[in-house]
């Protein structure tokens, strides 16, 4: 995130990736294209008549079952969080994302392939200042399942994520990080998605995880981790992936979280989105009050 020269960014040239969707199993080509300033991030269903567009904003979230899914009319795009996380991790504000099916390719289950593609495409500043999210006060969120979120104004973008599961292979994991391009690339982008072995049959019966394999996910068994030959990329890869997902879901606010500290426990997509809505509302009220004061002075 370019803090010394806070201009909006996009990519220099178009670039594409191919693979299968994690949940749908559909073959998919994803194409990143440059976008103009103040456009934001937008998804396009390139396989549908008229190539319908879906803004990557909170108001277009349709479901949060095992992923964050966007929709507008009949057009939907499933599991967008890894793509969005890569964008925010690199500080990209404006981007058109064309998808040839109803889900981006899962690639290796992390955001790294998207990050690498975007870096190959090249990043470029646009002639417009970044529009930061400014938080006026503490914002909290709690759910019945024990999930807890808190955000406070800070002098930088920080996340403290805590993962808690009642499973012998999953001790409590916590990770604290100042999020910038360097830390995202080194500590977050490579963390892969995961599920529990006892969930697999149920997920498939519900039409989910159709494209899942040990090449794009970690499966947590009763007494071992099932992965490809690579093994775990980090001892605490699971909480790092939860942080990756959180960053992706927060992207739907539409403004970079430049000066915010987020503390989150028992993270999940549904909770991420509800918390993001609270942050968005608080920031909008602050902007409205500032506008009102300017009008009063005039």
Whole-number radius of gyration?
19 Å
Question: What is the chain-wise order of helices and strands?
Answer: EEEEEEEEHEHEEEEEHEHEEHEH
Q: Compute the separation of the termini in Å.
A: 35 Å
Give the percentage of residues in beta strands.
25-35%
Count of distinct strands: 18
Per DSSP, the total helix count is 6
Q: What composes the largest sheet?
A: 5 strands, mixed
- Briefly note the structural class of the backbone: alpha+beta
Global shape:
globular
Write up this protein:
This protein has helices spanning 81-90, 112-121, 181-187, 200-205, 237-250, 269-297, and strands at 7-11, 15-20, 27-33, 41-45, 53-55, 61-63, 69-72, 75-77, 95-99, 123-129, 139-142, 148-153, 158-163, 173-178, 194-196, 218-220, 225-226, 260-265. The protein has 298 residues and is of the alpha+beta class. A hairpin with a 4-residue loop joins strand 16 and strand 17. The longest helix has 29 residues, at 269-297. The chain is globular. The chain starts with 6 loop residues before the first strand and ends with a helix. 41% of the residues are buried.
Please give the structural blueprint:
Layout: E1 7-11, E2 15-20, E3 27-33, E4 41-45, E5 53-55, E6 61-63, E7 69-72, E8 75-77, H1 81-90, E9 95-99, H2 112-121, E10 123-129, E11 139-142, E12 148-153, E13 158-163, E14 173-178, H3 181-187, E15 194-196, H4 200-205, E16 218-220, E17 225-226, H5 237-250, E18 260-265, H6 269-297
Parallel strand pairs: 4-9, 13-18, 15-16
Antiparallel strand pairs: 1-10, 2-3, 3-9, 4-5, 6-7, 7-8, 11-12, 12-18, 13-14, 16-17
């Amino acid at each position: 995130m370019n803090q010394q020269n806070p201009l909006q960014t996009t990519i220099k040239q178009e670039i594409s990736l191919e693979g299968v969707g994690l949940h749908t199993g559909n073959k998919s080509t994803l194409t990143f294209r440059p976008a103009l300033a103040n456009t934001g991030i937008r998804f396009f269903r390139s396989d549908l008549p008229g190539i319908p567009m879906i803004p990557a904003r909170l108001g277009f979230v349709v479901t949060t079952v095992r992923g964050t899914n966007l929709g507008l009319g009949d057009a939907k795009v499933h599991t967008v969080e890894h793509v969005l996380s890569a964008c925010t991790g690199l500080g990209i504000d404006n981007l058109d994302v064309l998808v040839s099916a109803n889900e981006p390719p899962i690639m290796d289950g992390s955001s790294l392939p998207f990050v690498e593609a975007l870096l190959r495409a090249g990043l470029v500043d646009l002639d417009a200042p970044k529009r930061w999210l400014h938080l006026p006060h503490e914002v909290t969120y709690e759910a019945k399942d024990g999930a807890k979120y808190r955000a406070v104004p800070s002098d930088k973008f920080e996340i403290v994520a805590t993962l808690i599961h009642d499973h012998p292979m999953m001790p409590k994991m916590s990770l604290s990080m100042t999020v910038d391009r360097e830390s995202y690339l080194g500590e977050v982008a490579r963390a892969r998605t995961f599920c529990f072995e006892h969930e697999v049959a149920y997920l498939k019966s519900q039409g989910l995880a159709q494209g899942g394999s040990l090449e794009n996910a970690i499966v947590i068994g009763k007494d071992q981790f099932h992965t490809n030959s690579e093994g775990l990329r980090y001892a605490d890869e699971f909480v790092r992936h939860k942080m990756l997902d959180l960053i992706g879901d927060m992207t739907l606010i539409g403004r970079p979280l430049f000066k915010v500290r987020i503390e989150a426990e028992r993270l999940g997509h549904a909770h991420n989105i509800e918390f993001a809505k609270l942050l968005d509302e608080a920031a909008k009220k602050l902007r409205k009050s500032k506008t009102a004061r300017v009008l009063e002075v005039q």
